[in-house]
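User: Can you predict the 3D structure of CubicO group peptidase, beta-lactamase class C family? Sequence below.
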Amino acid sequence: MQIQGFFDLKFEAVKDAFAALFENPQERGAALCIKVGGETVVDIWAGVADKDGTEAWNSDTILNLFSCTKTFTAVTALQLVGEGKLELDAPVARLWPEFAAAGKEKITLRQLLCHQAGLPALHELLPAEALYDWNAMIQALAAEQPWWTPGEGHGYAPITYGWLVGELLRRADGRGPGESIVARTAKPLGLDFHVGLDDAEFPRVAHIARAKGNLGDAAAQRLLKCMMTEPTSMPTRAFTNPPSIMTSTNKPEWRRMQQPAANGHGNARALAGLYAGLLDGSLLESDLLNELTREHCRGEDKTLLTSTRFGLGCMLDQPDVANATYGLGPKAFGHPGAGGSSGFADPERDLAFGFVTNTLGPYVLMDPRAQKLARVVGECL
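Assistant: Sure. Here are the predicted structure tokens for CubicO group peptidase, beta-lactamase class C family:
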């Protein structure tokens, strides 16, 4: 496999580990970017980007980063907190009055960001096209009753997070949530990152496909069993209501919408760049960075049915939980995306990591491909 790009010779073992991913014939395309002390030490890519496997992955290939988007969204919200336009512990309903319905009058932005608000899913089944109708989703969530008492326990909100936090960004910043996020995170740092993609960018977007035959780890199998056997359960609804959530990633209307939980598009450089910008203080003041990265909840996740640990819009490391460690230091914070892409920072090593792939794996939290690469990086340091 021809590996393109650049790596510092000290990290040759990382390049070799990346190349080894392609020994699996199902691996389509991927990219990896690592920054240490703000300097890029690895920026490599390989494989194919298109559906038919005829177009090579290029330096400017971008793809759907799924939930890696959530940290960009949380950083944007915290910038607005720093400007006094949002408050972490004020009721959401102060800015969004309709949201107070059905026992949600006390829910705060903090609870939304750390998945304690009880709103990871909608009870009422929505039509597939509701996914692309911002107002329909906002109205449904404003009327929704929490699945548990807000603040008591946590359950990851895979996609509702995007409308819930996004609507607050829209109201506080006076523009589309994607526009706000890109203007506040990507533009200042020069990152190739988009939430709401222009049609002109479509030719460089990688086609995403599932790997076959791998059932994943025990956590993935638990969630899959729940989704197959309990259609009305909260975890199932979280991923399948509207029913188009799981099947839309390659559709033009998915790329165009501004869904700040799951449809950010970018590359490995954009992920590493975000986390380098958090480490060097260019995106958040230290007190707000501390809010982002300090533990807000840990333990059994009501949605993912496995142990999770959250800050605000970022997933914190659980060093002794095999499927919940990034693979470097215990203070690491970041966010995995469905199917394998991952971005994180390891503050102890002043390291920022971005890995992206268009071959979806079946794992619920961390993908072993990204973990393996991170561990090799650690060995090189």
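The domain at 72-180 is CATH 3.40.710.10 (Beta-lactamase). The CA atoms of residues 65 and 303 lie 20 Å apart.
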